[in-house]
Every structure is written in structure tokens, then in C-alpha cells.
Amino acid sequence: MSLQSVREFLQQHQLNLPIIELDVSTATVALAAEAHGVEPGRIAKTLSFRLNDNQVVLVVAKGDARIDNKKFKVTFGKGKMLGLEEVVELTGHPVGGVCPFGLASPLPVYLDVSLKMYDEVIPAAGSVNSAVRISPELMRSITNGQWVDVCQNPL
Question: Of 27, 7, 25, nearest to 17 (Cα)?
């Protein structure tokens, strides 16, 4: 179901982006990077947060980035990551396959500026073994996303 919702989303946006389906799990950044033969930063991970006003937001960041709590609070106020069941319920995607496409509920999408260092990133595509290759700017455009700076600066 979730993979199908991503297919439908891409078709609705008239995008000819092939969904890559692998025989191995890509449910973590490390597994996805190994399976796709890329550095972990190129994996675009989607994180789900519930903010103090009860709004749920998705933050897409490069795979090896970590949320900077101070930057997050400046941008969103206080927030808490969703539990596994809530993630599935609100996104329609299993944990490890969450992406900003084909969501079960309309959710605001924010993309961390850490993604801008790449011409192409690899987010999941609704299952724990699927992904797409997409430019960060196209991902922002089709999700009506907004750029934010909420991750720690690389060392």
C-alpha cells in the first residue's frame, strides 16, 4: 500500500522517477548507503516530530546529519519524535521506509539545508527496501517543502 501511494504521488506530479526496489533492507541509513553504494550523507532520512502545538511535521535531512536541539527549538519550538505506531498511522509508511511522498495524511515537509550539498539524494519510497534518486530542490518543490537549518554543522 505505502509503496503504491508513492508510485501514485510520482505519477500525479508527472515525474518519471523510477522506484528502486532492492532484495535487501534499506531501513537504516547505513544499510541504505551500502545497498545503493553511496556515502551515508546521500541518504535522505525523513524524521517525524510532534510539536508543542500538537502539529506533526516531517524533517528530511542528509543521512549522517543529527538534529541540533537549539536550532530545532528556534525554528519549531519544542518537539518530540513520534513513536513507531504514530509514524505509520500518520505517514502511511513503515519506519525505515518513511518519505515525504504519498503520505496518508497531509503533513508539512521541511528539508534541512544539509541536503543542498548534493546534486542527488536517495530518500526511501514507502517501504523498507525501496528508494528514489532525486535532486533536493525537486524534492522540495513536489512536496511544497520549506528549507530549514535544524541539523548540527559537520565537524
Answer: 7
pLDDT tens digits, one per residue of 53-99: 899 999 999 999 999 999 999 999 999 999 999 999 999 999 999 99
Q: What share of the chain is helix, strand, coil (3-state, %, to 5)?
A: 30, 25, 45
Query: Quick check: pTM over 0.90?
Result: yes
Residue 113 carries which side chain, given as an amino acid letter? V
Nearest to 20 by CA among 95, 127, 120, 155: 127
> What is d(CA 59, CA 44) in angstroms, rounded to the nearest whole number?
10
Q: What residues make up the domain containing 121?
A: 2-148
The answer as to whether 55 is a domain residue is yes
Indicate the SS3 state at residue 88. Answer: helix
CATH code assigned at 55: 3.90.960.10
- In the numeric block, the cell 511544497 is attached to 144
